[in-house]
Write a structure and sequence with these properties.
The chain is α+β, with helices and mostly antiparallel strands. The protein contains six helices and 16 strands. About 20% of the residues lie in helices and about 40% in strands.
């Protein structure tokens, strides 16, 4: 391999697509909740269903949990700062109104506002749709997606990770906007018996059918979730192997690179029927889509690809 090719390969191998700080912080909150729930409850994470209005989109829920005879659909938020419902304002009377001063006359519960104060004392605000409404929308869409669940009662819940957030202005055990530390209390408040019975077999079977994201793990151990839309590579001329590109049949792809100067990547393609093939490739990439955005990941930057058991 020429020096130029080696240099380009090293350069490409260092150009990983990285998650931004907000995404990493949000995922850390979801991971924390998963570790709490998995010990005691039947739960599924990051399930997706087709968007009922847009054929090229999906909607997602962070967790579905069976606890004390109820099913909870949970959205997890890992925020820093104070959270409140959006203020409804009107101009003050008289000259103060002309000068732009306003009075708060109510709250818009369809939106929340997060206000964060920096170390320098400056504050800034961000506005979001109320995550509880998003959770309710997922529930109604889920019932239309899987008619077996049409008459099943789902309880919406939004969990805010304890620590650096203040949700006292929107907190409600009744409505399901709580701190993560209150989750057991909330589960019990919705229970008739306080007894944790096993999930019915038919219900577990239907919930397990729900699709989830494909997963790409990079060489820097970052995990990217999305729907794998394309997979292409150039194999070595002497690698005369029949390869199935039906992504629905593939369970996992493992990628090994001997060293940073290596001309080839070593792939192990593992199919859902447990068969596998090994081959050497010169170049290759995958396209991972999520919420309308497509990212191109080079195989030389990938450690592992895990395909969803249930694809859309």
């Amino acid at each position: 391999m020429s020096f130029v090719k080696k240099f380009l390969r090293i350069l490409q191998a260092t150009r990983n697509i990285s998650l931004d700080g907000a995404s990493l912080y949000g995922m850390s909150g979801e991971t924390e909740v998963q570790s709490i729930l998995e010990e005691d409850y039947f739960c599924l994470f990051n399930r997706i269903i087709p968007h009922p209005k847009f054929s090229d989109r999906v909607i997602e829920i962070d967790a579905i949990v069976w606890a004390y005879g109820n099913i909870f659909c949970i959205e997890v938020k890992n925020y820093v700062g104070e959270v409140e419902f959006k203020a409804i304002t009107q101009p003050k009377k008289g000259i103060l109104g002309w000068l732009g001063f306003t009075d708060i006359v109510g709250r818009d519960t369809s939106h929340i506002v997060k206000t964060k104060t920096t170390n320098r004392g400056n504050s800034y605000s961000e506005e979001f749709k109320n995550p509880l409404n998003k959770t309710k929308y997922f529930i109604s869409s889920l019932k239309n997606y899987n008619l077996s669940l049409k008459n099943k009662y789902f309880i919406p819940l939004v969990l805010f990770i304890d620590g650096e957030v203040d949700i006292n202005n929107i907190h409600s055990i009744h409505d399901g906007i709580i701190y993560a530390s209150e989750i057991e209390k909330f589960f019990l408040s919705k229970s008739n018996s306080g007894i944790q019975n096993p999930i019915p077999y038919w219900l577990k079977k239907e919930l397990l059918k729900l699709p989830t994201w494909d997963k790409v793990i990079t060489r820097t151990s970052q995990v990217h979730y999305g729907i794998l839309n394309d997979l292409q590579f150039i194999s070595l001329p002497n690698e005369n192997k029949e390869i199935s590109f039906d992504l629905k049949k593939i369970a996992q792809i493992k990628v090994v690179r001997e060293d940073i100067f290596s001309e080839v990547d070593l792939l192990t393609i593992i199919y859902k029927d447990k068969t596998k093939i090994n081959l050497k490739i010169l170049n290759g990439f995958i396209i991972l889509g999520r919420f309308g955005k497509n990212d191109k990941h080079l195989f030389r930057n990938i450690k592992e690809i895990v395909f969803s058991e249930n694809s859309l």
